[in-house]
Amino acid sequence: MVLAAGLSSRYGAVKQLESIGPAGELLMDYSIHDARRAGFERVVFVIRPELEEAFRHQVRRISPEIAAAYVFQHLDDLPERRLVPPGRTKPWGTGHAVLAAAPKIDGAFAVINADDYYGPASYRLLHDHFRSDAVNEQAMFALVGYPLAGTVTQHGGVSRAVCRCDTDGFLTDLVELTDVRMRERQITGRDPHGTPVPLKGDEIVSMNCWGFTAAVLPLLQAQFAAFLEREPHLETAEFLIPLAVNDILRQGQGRCKVLSARESWFGMTHRADRALVQQHIRNLVDRDQYPSPLFSG
Prior knowledge:
By secondary structure, the chain is α/β, with parallel strands linked by helices. The chain has a domain at 2-145 and 206-236 and 262-286: Spore Coat Polysaccharide Biosynthesis Protein SpsA, Chain A. It contains seven helices and 13 strands. The chain has helices spanning 27-38, 52-62, 94-100, 120-131, 216-230, 241-250, 273-286; strands at residues 2-3, 42-47, 67-72, 109-113, 116-117, 140-147, 158-165, 171-183, 186-190, 196-199, 204-212, 255-260, 266-267. Strands 1, 2, 3, 4, 6, 7, 8, 9, 10, 11 and 12 form an eleven-stranded mixed sheet that branches. Strands 5-13 form a two-stranded antiparallel ribbon. β1 (2-3), α1 and β2 (42-47) form a beta-alpha-beta unit. α1 packs parallel to α4 and α5 (216-230) packs across α6. It starts with a strand and ends in an 11-residue tail after the last helix.
């Protein structure tokens, strides 16, 4: 599942459709390439209606072998008797985006952002996780975590969810930090109360690379309904996957294994990140990790 309905407000353009690769590839093209090689067979794109034609055109460029589906994240896709709050214009967030794709889901699936690069091993970790005997439980999920220091951009603050795990590597909770950035060789962020927090850089964070079974969908639906009831600022608040997973774990409704990333993450939060991301991809192509053009179909 590729989440691509965001407004890219900090980026200032539709970053999901920015050309990054040497032959005009999008960043998500490399994710699809890696996921297919790991064993994933279908792609579900969660998009805004106005982006549909551009996404369909891009997928036709990739390969006719890819089974692709498109779903729209609508503001008015709410529980019964709920109306869009006055002034609400932005999408409801990543948790709501997963719910938008629920009709297309019938088994285990990975969730990624369209504008992030996770590396081939991340998809192999998720694919192997769901083929293992450990996932006999219906509500067994997975998260690929990355060291914080490798996810901070030099071009501004970012939000990061720091993982806390038990001794067996299962997630106990995620702490959402905002304005995470490097300041005079020290990484700092702000906790949910706005208090500055010093960070070491070796903290494991979520970059929205998840593995779920279909059992997560009714749980997310219940969490979204609860979010709408308790959230005082519905004109701007977002229903995010990390916050929903936190509540699922606290209520004992599921478990989530944290898998350690074996490769570096990079992505585009700010407009100035694009040149660095292009250089990263060029380096991978030069090392023959990817062909150029990426797809010949």
